[in-house]
Amino acid sequence: MKNTILILTKKGDRHITPIAEELARRNVPMVTFDVADFPEHIQIAARIDTESDGWQGPLCLQDHTYDLADIRSIWYRRPTPYVAPTHYIPPVRAFLALENLRGFVGILHGPFWVSPRGAIQAAEFKPAQLQAAQAQGLSLPRTLITNDPTAVRAFFDECHGAVISKAVARGVVDPEGHFMKDHPRFMHTSRVAREDLKDAEGVRVCAHLFQELILKAMDVRVTVIGRQVFTVGIHSHTEESALDWRRGYGSLTYTVEKLPNEIEQKLLQVVRGFGLQYSSADFILTPQGDYIFVELNPNGQFYFLVPPTHVPMAEAMVDLLCSPEEYRIC
């Protein structure tokens, strides 16, 4: 009987604790692996043939053995990738990393996923997010992606100087801190000043994303967990966090909100279109009461919102993992 929940994540992931507690309360077995543990600490012997019901066989971690056929759902949370030993030359290390990823993750293809790895990767592209949101009729900030200094200056004037810049991809330059210990490694949303245009030639080095600065009544974080949707208002109390709330967690306050049904349904269509079962989404609520879509975070954090609001997100995630036929986004 398929009843085991598998969570793929790195060691020390604090999101796992409330999920594990809720699964234990419901007497549902759970196992947690990190992709980086294969092949050194995990052993597999998976088989498939014409008559089998998908991949079958043992999955062994240290002195514990699990049956692939028992896995009901998989939460692709925050695993770390396998890194091959340094005594291999770079092409071989890259080959081993890809073989291990596709081999280990590939045999787990059969169960229900929150969310499929490929769907998460596709949804991480901000240009695709914005186009999908626009296609569903969500309101957007005016946005420019460019490496043309002239286009930057024209956009700045078009927006009357109310412009921000942000990363097109991840706003992290050196995630592990190996190379930039004495320098900023995170690119937060920043206001573009007119004097910055003097150095606009610098945009030629890569794609840059610029957006119209939208006046806020508050930031809104929407968390989609299957069919269940949770909305939290994020209230900033410093100048830095007002521009990017991630820069001032200590000064933030939170309120439980209700997203208008029309906006919620459009957002669900965006999430569904990417093949996701989970995603967070950031909106701006303007002083006039309009909701402006900012971006998706297809594998974003949610548990930091639970202690101050008591929204039942952990329970919703367990609902989805245990009963996908009832709670999944169709």
Question: What secondary-structure arrangement, pairings included, does this model have?
Answer:
Elements: E1 4-8, H1 16-25, E2 30-33, E3 42-44, E4 58-61, E5 64-67, E6 71-76, H2 90-106, E7 112-114, H3 117-123, H4 126-135, E8 143-146, H5 149-158, E9 163-166, E10 190-191, E11 208-212, E12 218-225, E13 228-235, H6 239-243, E14 253-257, H7 261-273, E15 278-285, E16 291-297, H8 306-309, H9 313-322, H10 324-327
Helix pairs in contact: 1-9
Coarse structural class: alpha+beta
Helix proportion of residues, in percent? Answer: 25-40%
SSE arrangement, N to C: EHEEEEEHEHHEHEEEEEHEHEEHHH
- Give the overall shape: globular
Explain what this protein looks like in three dimensions.
The protein is 27% helix and 24% strand. It is α+β, with helices and mostly antiparallel strands. The protein folds into three domains: 4-114, Rossmann fold; 142-212, ATP-grasp fold, A domain (Dna Ligase, domain 1), CATH 3.30.1490.20; 215-327, D-amino Acid Aminotransferase, Chain A, domain 1. The strands form four sheets. The protein has a five-stranded antiparallel β-sheet with strand order 14-13-12-15-16. A four-stranded parallel β-sheet has the order 2-1-6-7, covered by helices on one side. A hairpin with a 5-residue loop joins strand 15 and strand 16 (291-297). The two termini are 23 Å apart.
